[in-house]
Amino acid sequence: MRAPLGRIVGARSGDKGGDANIGVWTRTDAAYAWLREELTTARLKELLPEAGEVTRYELPNLRALNFVLHGLLGQGVAASTRFDPQGKALGEWLRARHVDIPDELLDPATRTAPATRTAPATRTAPATGADPATGADQGART
Fold first, then answer.
1. pLDDT digits (tens, 9 = 90+) for 60-100
2. What own/partner pairs with CB < 8 Å and gap ≥ 24 does 105-110 have?
3. Residue 54 CA to chain centroid, in angstroms?
4. CA–CA distance, 118 with 107 (Å, rounded to integer)
5. Among candidates 59, 65, 18, which has minimal Cα distance to 41?
6. How far is CA 126 from CA 5, 8, 41, 119, 135, in A?
7. Which of 114, 115, 98, 96 minimizes the C-alpha distance to 1?
8. 5-55: pLDDT as tens digits
9. Residue 138: enclosing H or E segment and its boundaries?
10. Of 100, 5, 108, whose CA–CA distance to 48 is shortest?
11. d(CA 71, CA 50)
12. Cα angle at 135 between 131 and 140, to 5 degrees?
């Protein structure tokens, strides 16, 4: 199912000088096995095109991957002109990217598409001057 990566991973990101750091983790071994195969450095660059040189570290005991995006923040936070100079939003930006996630890794209760929203029912105020919220007569209105 095509869904945001954040449906099955958590993330945390930040900066170290001019480099950005993104850590992603899963809750299950099955999700980690999929993530380990899916989220290569090449795939990360597809999902975050602004990434240049990327190094990936595997942390299997934590079911996590850590990525260092070298030079993404230029000379660091003080010299950066990026909207997110400390790279704090990169983890959530990655989690928002849509990928094909195997159905068996998704929570069965949330596998279906979200229900369509309908407009809320509206109440029509009586012609008398009643309060639309309560229906109480507010007296004559001028």
1. 999 999 999 887 665 545 445 544 444 567 888 899 999 99
2. 105/8, 105/28, 105/30, 105/31, 105/34, 106/1, 106/3, 106/7, 106/8, 107/7, 110/7
3. 20
4. 25
5. 65
6. 50, 50, 64, 21, 8
7. 98
8. 999 999 988 777 778 889 999 999 999 999 999 999 999 999 988 888 899
9. none
10. 5
11. 11
12. 50
Q: What is the pTM of this model?
A: 0.68
The candidate with the shortest Cα–Cα distance to 96, out of 48, 49, 64, 34, is 48
Calpha distance 134→40 (Å, rounded): 58
- pLDDT value of position 113: 40
Q: What is the largest CA-CA distance in the chain?
A: 73
Neighbours of 118 (CB within 10 A): 6
- Could you tell me the two tokens for 116? 């369509």
Q: How many residues does the chain have?
A: 142
Say if residues 52 and 71 touch (Cβ distance below 8 Å). Answer: yes
Do 97 and 6 form a contact (C-beta atoms < 8 A)? Answer: no
